[in-house]
Amino acid sequence: MDNLNFTTLQKGQTMVSDVALDTFAAGFRGNLLTSGDVAYDEARAIWNAMIDRRPGLIARCAGAADVIRTVRFARDNNLLISVRGGGHGIAGNAVCEGGVIIDLSPMKSVRVDPETRRARIEPGATLGDVDKETMAFGLVLPTGINSTTGIAGLTLGGGFGWLTRKFGLTLDNLISVDVVTADGELVRASETERPDLFWALRGGGGNFGVVTSFEFQLNPLHSEVLAGLVVHPFADAENVLREYRQALEAAPDELTCWVVMRQAPPLPFLPAEWHGKEIVVLAMCYCGDMAAGEKAAARLRGIGKPIADVVGPTPFTGWQQAFDPLLTPGARNYWKSQDFASLSDAAIEILINAVRKLPGPECEIFIGHVGGAAGRVPTEATAFPQRSSHFVMNVHARWRETGMDASCIGWARELFEATKPHAVGTAYINFMPEDETDRVEMAYGTNYGRLAEIKLRYDPNNMFRMNQNVKPMEAVRAA
Questions:
Q1: Does 306 have pLDDT greater than 80?
Q2: In whole angstroms, what is the distance from residue 92 CA to residue 123 CA?
Q3: 119, 113 Cβ separation under 8 angstroms
Q4: What CA–CA distance (Å, rounded) separates 376 from 366?
Q5: Percent of the chain, pLDDT > 90?
Q6: Is the distance from CB of 29 to CB of 63 less than 8 angstroms?
Q7: CB under 8 Å to 441, separation ≥6 — which residues?
Q8: Which residues contact 110 (CB under 8 A, 6 or more apart)?
C-alpha cells in the first residue's frame, strides 16, 4: 500500500483528500489496489468480458470491519460504490467506473452446524465452496447450476436451480443476514429483527446494503442424485418440447428438468457427426430415492428417439459442476429473459425459429422449470415476486470476438421481443443485463412499491445503485 495513488478516485468534481485516503488505508485490514498495482487488472475483471471498467480503488475486504470502513469512506467522500461477490452477474454491476469496488471475494468462510442443520456463509463464497462444506454432512442448500457463481448475488436476487422445486429458492432458506447499511452500520436482519429489511433483501438485490454474512437453513440430501442429459436431434424439437411440457404436469417436486437448445459441443458421449449441429437437450435431476427417480423420469426419458441418454446416479457435487466448462469466464455475454406461465405452442414455435438463427456456437436458449416448493410461497412473503409455477427463459448470447457484438446482441433482443406476447411480464433480476433499467419496476410487480419505501428508509440517497436499481420512494414519486 506504499504506492497508493488515488488521484483518479473521484465522482464528478469531488476529489479525495490525501489525509482522508491515508487515514482510510491505515485502518484497512485487507488489500487495497489501484491502477498502478500488478494485480489491479485481474481484480477488476469479472465473468462477463463485455464489462471493462476502471475503478479508482478496489478494496479487497478481509471482514465486516473493512466493509464498514469502506462504506463510510465512500459516503463521506461522495464516491460511487459497487459491490463484488463472485463477479458472475451478467449486468456487470460488480465493477464501477472511477469509484470504489467493495470486493468481498476474499471472504469465503462456510461454517456448517450439522446439529441445527444451519450454515453461516460469507459473501465471497461460490456455490462450489458451499456444496463442498454442506455435502460433507449430507446437507445441501438449494442454489444455482454453475459452481463458480457467487452465493451473495444469487441469494439476494432469488437463486434457483436443480433443487428449487423440492427445497425452494435459495432466499427461501435464508434465516438471517448481517448487513452494512448506507450509514455504515452493521445490523442483523431476520424475521424478528428488522423484518422489513429482511423482506427486501430476499429478492431485492444489492439495493439495501452490503451483506457480510448469510445464515441458511440446510436440507438433508443423499450424496448421489439421479441426473444427466438426454440429447435429441433439433429436427424433433417441436415434438420434444410439447411432450416435455406434458410430462412435467405430473412431475413430483423431487424432479427438475430444463431444456437447452444450442449447437452441440464436443461432448465425449455424442457421436462426432453431431458436434456443431443444433440439438435439444433435456437436463434433469431427481433428488430422492433412486428407484422412485427412475419411475419419475421415465416419461421424460421416453420422449422421441434421442441421440444419447446419459442419465444415471451421480454425485450431486459433480452434477453441480457439469455445466462449468460451458460457462467459463472470459467470453462476451448478453442475456435476455422472460417468465412464462406456460410453454404455449406459439412460444415453442418462436423458440425453434430462433435456434435456426443462432449467431454463434456458444449461443443458446434454456428453459428452466420452476414451481414446486418455490411456487407455494405467497407473492407478498418476500420481495421476489415470481411465485406461480412457471418456466423461465434465458436467451444466452455468448461469443468471443467484438465483431460479433451486433449480431449476438441483436439475436437475443429479437427473440426477447418476439416472446413478449406470451410472457407474464415479471423477470428474474439476476438474468437482466445492464441496459434493462427501465424494466426493474415491472420485474418486481406488486412488490415494487414496498421495496421503494424500504429503500427510502435504509438508503435515501441511493448510494447502493450499482444494481438493478430500486429508487427511493421520494424519487419514484418525483418521476
A1: yes
A2: 17
A3: yes
A4: 23
A5: 92
A6: yes
A7: 448
A8: 119, 120, 121, 122, 125, 129, 130, 132, 133, 134
Name the one residue in this structure whose C-alpha cell is 445441501.
140
What is the CA 297 to chain-centroid distance, rounded?
27
pLDDT digits (tens, 9 = 90+) for 351-366: 999 999 999 999 999 9
457-466: pLDDT as tens digits: 999 999 999 9
The amino acid occupying position 120 is R
Query: Maximum CA pair distance of the chain?
Result: 71
The C-alpha atoms of residue 352 and residue 239 are separated, in whole angstroms, by 11
pLDDT digits (tens, 9 = 90+) for 172-187: 999 999 999 999 999 9
Note the pLDDT tens digit of each residue in 389-421.
Answer: 789 999 999 999 999 999 999 999 999 999 999
Cell numbers linked to 73: 469512506
* Phi, psi angles (nearest 5°) of residue 39: -85, 0
- Nearest CA-CA partner of 288 in 247, 245, 252: 252
The pLDDT of residue 388 is 84
Grid cell for residue 407 = 449480431
Three state DSSP letters for the chain: CCCCCCCCCEECCEECCHHHHHHHHHCCCCEEECCCCCCHHHHHCCCCCCCCCCCCEEEECCCHHHHHHHHHHHHHCCCCEEEECCCCCCCCCCCCCCCEEEECCCCCCEEEECCCCEEEECCCCEHHHHHHHHHCCCEECCCCCCCCCEHHHHHHHCCCCCCHHHHCCCHHHEEEEEEECCCCCEEEEECCCCHHHHHHHCCCHHHHCEEEEEEEECEECCCEEEEEEEEEEHHHHHHHHHHHHHHHHHCCCCEEEEEEEEECCCCCCCCHHHCCCEEEEEEEEECCCHHHHHHHHHHHHCCCCCCEECCEEEEHHHHHCCCHHHCCCCCEEEEEEEEECCCCHHHHHHHHHHHCCCCCCCCEEEEEECCHHHHHCCHHHCCCCCCCCCEEEEEEEEECCHHHHHHHHHHHHHHHHHHHHHCCCCCCHHHCCCCCHHHHHHHHHHHHHHHHHHHHHHCCCCCCCCCCCCCCHHHHHHC
